[in-house]
Amino acid sequence: MRHDHLLTAKQLSRADIEEVLSRAREFADDPAAHADRHPGALLALCFFEPSTRTKMSFETAAKRLGGDIIDMGSVESSSVKKGESLADTVRVIEGYSDGIVLRHPSQGAAQMASEFVDVPLVNAGDGAGHHPSQTLLDLYTIDQHAGLDDLTIGVMGDLKYGRTVHSLAHALTNFDARQHFISPESLRLPRSVRYDLHEAGANVREHEELEAVLSELDVLYVTRIQRERFPDEEEYEKVAGQYRIDAATLADARDDLAVMHPLPRVDEIDPEVDELPNATYFDQAHNGVPVRMALLDLLLD
After folding, report:
1. Which of 18, 59, 85, 272 has an alpha carbon within 20 to 30 A of 101's alpha carbon?
2. 3-class SS at 26?
3. How does pLDDT run across 101-146, given as a tens digit for each residue?
């Protein structure tokens, strides 16, 4: 993989993805064997929005490679509270670190920030834009359960504001994948994403009901209706709870269907699904460590 920064899944070729996943498998097989890959490397975590899995898995990945992290902390405790611009913040932090992981509520923030730094910068989510490192661990998980070619995947929930969905859809255009998108009309894929998928020759279908396609799926990727992205609380209430998976829902699914979710979940997957062999979302979260180890290893090299 030959990139200075990882900002969007659109920049990843099939060869890039396969290189990251291959290296991630090596790290997953024996994490301790790679504890001195990057001794003394410092990774800066700059999270302007809440995070559990992304932030902690990047921290774990850096430490398992022999490095360490510095953490900007909350926005309220930083100079951002005093009015400091994002450009100034990352230019300062660049001087303290060998790489930056940035999460920001504004779409396009990572692209803008990358223009002010020379150390590698990873987009850990920019509003409703992209989340490419999540996509890499999603692809790793899909590959474990169904392979990435001759794949039929359903993506259900908030497709309008779901950055994990946008990134995954773009990345899957590198493979032989049939993509089905299930959502209410008001939460369909943004027109710009649909256009890009069309231009890439993706095999895409859109539905309002899961039942129309469930029996065909190898993977069902469920997403949360993101309350924090809605400009109007009334609009959120109209769609909240419409798409929910429980054991009964999966009765007509293939036995080997993999149910995925980027987490956190609210009520879109009933906890009873956790006990079914279809549930892969906790493994998916755990896969963030070897995948992000692989990503950091490549970027820091």
Report:
1. 18
2. helix
3. 999 999 999 999 999 999 999 999 998 889 999 999 999 999 999 9
Span 15-55, pLDDT tens digits: 999 999 999 999 999 988 999 999 999 999 999 999 999 99
At 285, is the secondary structure helix, strand, or coil?
helix
Per the structure block, which two tokens stand in for 206? 């859109």
CA nearest 27: which of 40, 43, 15, 38?
Answer: 38
Single pTM value for the model: 0.93
Q: Letter for the amino acid at 91?
A: R
Lookup result for tokens 């998928």:
197
Residue 23 DSSP SS3: helix
Tokens standing for 22? Answer: 């291959």
Write out the catalytic residue numbers. 53-54, 82, 103, 131
Identify which of 168, 162, 166, 169 has the alpha carbon closest to the alpha carbon of residue 201.
169
How many other CB atoms are there within 10 angstroms of residue 121's CB atom?
26
The answer to whether residue 228 scores a pLDDT higher than 80 is no
